[in-house]
């Protein structure tokens, strides 16, 4: 891609380990690297600029597969999520299949309860975060401060009443 096209918000693709993925340039880090957002997976990653390519038109129109989500009924104890809460959440996710129970879909954010059912007793994430002193259970869904910074899909995925009409913002 020409340097003039390498800018935040640009939809393109990147090759990683011989596979191609749709990405949106999130920020330019330096002359060699950019941080990209994967709209079909919901994660950020730093990649080399030389790995970027323009995306074929037919793939530009596909809706993003990642959906902005938030844990239902919890809020951080101190106003923002601490490192301990983030680490605990990542540990709970730990490459396992989880059950998601939808509470509501409001303003483009899916609020859900997450549960690990792989053990004898079900493990609900909001309870573990509460018991670990990282979260307060509040019985309602309160948008996190800085949600767009924590969840980049909120920057790029347009909320829609119908999934088939969801499109990437340009």
TrEMBL record:
Signal peptide: none
Gene3D superfamilies in alphabetical order: 2.30.30.140, 2.40.50.90
Domain Tudor: residue ranges: 5-62
Domain of life: Eukaryota
InterPro entries per UniProt: SNase_OB-fold_sf (IPR035437), Tudor (IPR002999), Tudor_domain_containing (IPR050621)
Family annotation (PANTHER family): TUDOR DOMAIN CONTAINING PROTEIN, TUDOR DOMAIN-CONTAINING PROTEIN 5
Protein name: Tudor domain-containing protein 5
Source species taxonomy: Eukaryota, Metazoa, Chordata, Craniata, Vertebrata
